[in-house]
Amino acid sequence: MEEQLLSSRGEILKRYGNLLASYGGKIRLTGPSDPEILWNDHILDCLFTVSRLPDKGRILDVGSGGGLPGLVWAICRPDLEVTLLDSVKKKCGALEEMAAELELPNVRVLWGRCEEYALRERETFSLAGARAVAGTGILLEYLSPFVAVGGTVMAMKGPLYTEELEPLQGRWNRLGLAAPSIVPYGGEEKKRFLILWKKNAPCSSRFPRKTGMAEKTFWWR
């Protein structure tokens, strides 16, 4: 599927990469600002997740930063409404500028904390995902309240994901989640893992807790 997407959406994905690189020195949207590194290590990485998106509905990228993976989703799946949420106002401004430049009417940008927006838009998304935002346990508390029963929580992780999952084993149901499925990708040189949880019950009304609590008091202990 990735080759097909590169054939059909490669040009606009390249434009996105160049736009992302152009913010280097102005605002830190990603680590590197070199277009080639952005393409190889970030955009292509996010491209793998597109095949796991739902057939229809609304999807959410939490802590979107420079739009990874959310803008890649919006480019490759113009039929889906993609919401990009970030707590940094300048990053949200950059996301809005890039979405306008790339002519992506299916993008909505929200500035604020996920704990606050999860109360307003509770269990209204078919999928919520994040990349390089927080440890897996904390991330699940952020994401699960957004996802409707039957939907999916997605995390993109590196090889150390097993250490993050270990203390969570058998506790997924506290957030209304089934045990995760793990999808490896990236080959031997760049081992990456897509972790997917199905939402099989409503999330407890305890979650999300107040801003900052997810990092201070872990829900699984």
From TrEMBL:
Any one GO molecular-function label of the UniProt entry: rRNA (guanine-N7-)-methyltransferase activity
Binding annotation for S-adenosyl-L-methionine: 63, 68, 114-115, 131
Job of this protein: Specifically methylates the N7 position of a guanine in 16S rRNA.
Subcellular location: Cytoplasm
EC number(s) reported in the record: 2.1.1.-
Keywords: Cytoplasm, Methyltransferase, rRNA processing, S-adenosyl-L-methionine, Transferase
GO cellular component entries: cytosol
Pfam families, A to Z: GidB
HAMAP family named in the record: 16SrRNA_methyltr_G
Name of the protein this chain belongs to: Ribosomal RNA small subunit methyltransferase G
Main location group: cytoplasm
Family: Belongs to the methyltransferase superfamily. RNA methyltransferase RsmG family.
